[in-house]
Write a structure and sequence with these properties.
By secondary structure, the protein is of the alpha/beta class. The protein has two domains: 213 residues, Rossmann fold (3-Layer(aba) Sandwich), CATH 3.40.50.300; 38 residues, no CATH class. Helices cover 56% and strands 13% of the residues. The protein is built from 14 helices and eight strands. Strands 1, 2, 3, 4, 5, 6, 7 and 8 form an eight-stranded mixed β-sheet that branches. Helix 1 packs across helix 2, helix 1 crosses helix 3 and helix 2 runs antiparallel to helix 7. The longest helix has 28 residues.
């Protein structure tokens, strides 16, 4: 017999690691019966959520995200914080989990009682993975973690999904040889709130500083408005710890800047609104796919659309009609 949702919620609030882990497993599941329990759980936990500093951390594979999170998280714990690490990596089911897959890179955090490190939920569908991560973040906030770091790999849409669930988006960049800045795309610069050129140590230190200056210059060109807030570009070394305190201070400064303008509340309000519609889209999508009238003809219809016998527009119309008939019969 599964434990009651009320017991699970109480366990999360009391910071039981076992119950926190089970609550996250529950919110990660997409099975309909689990979704019902998960919604009940999140409703019970809701009053205790929203208090954490939420930071997204992105960068190309090998930029040093895991090493950075381990080193920064350890410092934050020493300063009295409780740190949760979650991830959005829609490829993790295929690759076996590149993000956070290697927990040895977060050895210090994994071993700490004041940290909770959760690998990315698996799934090919970004929307589903992002939902699971977001709900895990809420569970961890209710469990008293006051800093939530969301790691995402710096390719594709997952960064946008993460920027929509955090207060501050931190981009880790690398400088290497002639190819000064790797993995910096214009779109990323537009969502980054703070940029840090990592691995500024040993023989790379000079390169990293040059890269940071160039990047700063490039951003001034992109946005010449002197009033506009431009993301600060710093250098750091996740390995030696140099610059980490300054990077964290820049994250806090960004947050203060938002608070001073009243835009932290606005940002979160907008995120809630977007989130509501994302959930509606996802749930409608599931409802349509599970609806008996749609399922009955789906294989046939899919084949007809694939072969070109039926157009996509016509196929979509039939799916909606079948769904509407099922609704009418309910
Ligand atoms: N010299 C130097 N090496 C670093 C630093 N940070 C990370 N590394 C090394 O870079 C490699 C990749 O680090 P990770 O922390 O695994 O990078 P990641 O961005 O999490 O990589 P993925 O999870 O694969 O996307 C490892 O060998 C680290 O030891 C740094 O500040 N300086
Ligand atoms: Mg990593």
């Amino acid at each position: 017999m599964a434990e009651s949702v009320a017991d699970l919620a109480a366990g999360v609030r009391e910071r039981s690691r076992g119950q926190i882990a089970r609550a996250i497993t529950l919110v990660e599941s997409s099975r309909p019966a689990h979704r019902d329990r998960a919604k009940e759980l999140l409703a019970l936990l809701a009053p205790d959520t929203g208090h954490a500093v939420r930071v997204g951390i992105s960068g190309i594979p090998g930029a040093g995200k895991s090493t950075f999170i381990d080193a920064l998280g350890t410092r934050l714990i020493e300063a009295g914080h409780r740190v949760a690490v979650v991830a959005v990596d829609p490829s993790s089911s295929r690759t076996g989990g590149s993000v956070l897959g290697d927990r040895t890179r977060m050895a210090a955090l994994t071993a700490s009682d004041d940290a909770f490190v959760r690998p990315s939920p698996s799934g090919d569908h970004l929307g589903g993975v992002a939902r699971a991560t977001r709900e895990s973040m809420l569970v961890l906030e209710a469990a008293g973690f006051d800093v939530v770091l969301v790691e995402t790999v710096g390719v594709g849409q997952s960064e946008v999904a993460v920027s929509e669930m955090v207060d501050t988006f931190l981009m880790l960049a690398l400088a290497r040889g002639g190819d000064q800045l790797q993995g910096i795309k214009r779109g990323i610069l537009e969502i980054a709130d703070v940029i840090a050129v990592n691995k500024a140590d040993g023989p790379y230190e000079g390169d990293a500083r040059v890269a940071a200056r160039e990047l700063s210059g490039a951003m001034r060109m992109m946005n010449p408005d002197p009033e506009a807030r431009r993301p600060p570009v710093l250098t750091c070394s996740a390995q030696t710890g140099a610059g980490l305190d300054e990077v964290w201070q820049a994250v806090l400064d960004h947050r203060s800047h938002l608070e001073a303008q009243g835009s932290l509340a606005t940002r979160r309000a907008e995120q809630q609104q977007e989130w509501m519609w994302a959930m509606v889209d996802a749930e409608l999508h599931d409802l349509v796919r599970r609806s008996p009238g749609v399922r009955e003809h789906l294989a046939e219809l899919t084949a007809a659309v694939r072969s070109g016998e039926t157009s996509a527009v016509e196929g979509a119309g039939r799916v909606i009609d079948a769904f509407a008939r099922d609704l009418g019969e309910r």
